[in-house]
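Convert to structure. Protein one:
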Amino acid sequence: MRPIALTMGDPAGIGGELTLRTWLARPGPVLVTMDDPERLTELAKTLGLDVPIRIVDRAADAVAEALSVLPVRLAEPAIPGRPNPANAPAVVKSIEVATALCLSGETAAMVTNPINKAALYQAGFNYPGHTEFLAVLTGAIGQQIMMLASPRLKVVPVTVHASLRASIAMLTTKMIADAARTTSVALARDFGLAQPRLAIAGLNPHAGEQGALGDEETTIIQPAIDILRAEGIDVSGPWPPDTMFTPAARKRYDVAICMYHDQALIPLKTLDMDHGVNVTLGLPIVRTSPDHGTAYDIAGKGVADPSSLIAAIVLAAELAGRRARAA
């Protein structure tokens, strides 16, 4: 398989340590990371990690015997736990280079280390996060969907990086139906599920209690379910949000389509934080990411757990392999 492209993430966070520890764990695919080789070399020395760093000019030159690095230089030295907007251009460039490598076919997929959106915003970054930026870079604006996946649960939030008040205000039947369609196609193509089963969450307590606790279920959500069923998609709901994530309920569906960010991410992270993976659906490339943030409080302390990044790399390789076989 072609190498997996791995981005820098916020250099003040735990991304660098995760990259080093992941290489030591040998997750399988050959990795090529867009990062500052001097930073990684110094970080490995500080943490006592025996990771050989090899600078390469092309992704094709990446090798399994060392951590291969396509250099993206930082403007200033990274200080653990202290995000620096001066280094934001390097963070953005790392994402851009990895995306270009995937679009050209030089790498099989990309995995992104966590970023700090606030630090990027201070440097003029105009996107809510990775998902929206990647949609622009790949020409898939409006098609991108965020899915969080683990062996125990898959969830898709219909509204993502917005306040709860704004999320409720922007929710529409079309948004729900579009998210469900993209999810159904991706589960069949990339995850190998011939007939994916989608559970649509309600918005209100008890899924509205027949309108007594809110009418969004009848005015917005149910019409989307009706449209999807008419298209032949296996969809159920609206499910009461407080009971749809129990062990018994989860056996009845393959993915939960949730109405807002925390409705989706709280159960996923509660059930399987260490193995949760962020997958961007609807892109012409495969992109995954660990399901956690920059963890400034432990950056540079040598205690970061690479489990989620390893899971993201393994899943990226699996998805890319299915796409390649289906091509």
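Protein two, convert as well:
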Amino acid sequence: MDKYKYLIKNIGLLAISSFATKLLSFFLVPLYTNILTTTEYGIYDLFHATISVLLPILTLNIQESVIRFALEKKYDRNAIVTIAMRYLLISCIFIILGLSINSFLGLSLIGKTYAIYFLLLFFVQALSGIVLAYIRGIDKITELSISSIIASVVTIGCNILFLLCFKWGLGGYFLANIIGPLVQSIYLIIQFHMIRATHLQNQYKLETRAMLCYCKPLIANSISWWVNNVSDRYIVMYFCGLAENGIYSIASKIPSILNIFQTIFSQAWVLSVIKDFDPEDKNGFFANTYKTYNCLMVIICSAIIVVDKILAHILYSKDFYVAWRYVPWLTIAIVFGSLSGYIGGFFSAVKNSKIFAQSTMIGAVLNVVLNMILTPFLGALGAAIATAACYMAVWIIRYWHSKKYIKLRINICRDIFSYLLLAIQAVVLLFATETHFLYIIEGLLFVIITSVYCKDISLVINKLLKRT
């Protein structure tokens, strides 16, 4: 299949499921902010953040190997499934032991009160990560999209039922976000006979060694991404309190609009880059897709900044409204994170997982340092700025290293200029108090950014027209 057609087909299928999942949950933000307090949302976010860092450590990041090795038909798929499930079970044993020790010693009252939710959330996220990675690896994107729609319907339905009808509060919110992904995982496990493929009595020593050799360096990468993504939540909580952390967490809901596009593309892109990797990029496929991706991400980011306050009025209730201040910087962070992920696809193709770890570790250190400097003075705004800065650093490092593996012909000076304009937009939004002046300046900056990418927009339109 043509490279562009294969990528566009996967983007289309993943878009169907992602829009159903992300957009519907996006419009439920007013429900969450009306029913849950800032402290309750802060607790959920804290659990989610903690699980995010425990998953790659306790499972040895096995899901990264699952997708990479499942993409190559020479590997035994029964072995891939079995090895992944074995590490899933081992990780759950460690979680049970940890929660038992906490219950006995009383180290964390919140951890003790919501222990069962923590365990279930960990199990479901670990299971879902493995199952979805396997399904993507065997290139069953249509079925993956169907399952995502099922999961979104179940999750949203449970949220409405548990929060509005049963009035279960935070417990109901936990359950809804556990049941949805669990239903999706069960559906896919049954559909693709993953239980039948699991043979825990078999050792699969060669496959285990190969998979661990690939995924172990990515543990440091995942932990570093965790530092970049959520360590700021702990620092905000320390300096500003649990309630402020809840506000900072809800701020990510508006940037999630951009994250929808990032998630769709990155999932499809990994499949394409491994399947069609060409170090010389003779036909310009990788350069064209990078330019298109960068163009769309920057323009959408700019548009989100323009309408940030309007969306905040619609989505954020009560004490959550102030979260609009953090949205521009978190959205800019997604732009650099998405471009870092794009370039990271090249390292996956050549199975060089060490560069992942090196770049993200540097970004993580920078993130912590900037957070410790900026948060005491600027509050959660400082954490948002630090997050954007660290993602930019990761992008710079990966772009530099990628030159060893591929000739990517792009206009980097023009791109840097557009990134500076995004930063100016974010600053203007913070300091412009007069509404008409604010939207005139923001609108003008958006027009300039769009005009910068006229050629890339024309390229996208021409490609689409040729294929219709």
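The chain has 21 helices and no strands. The two ends are 16 Å apart (CA to CA).
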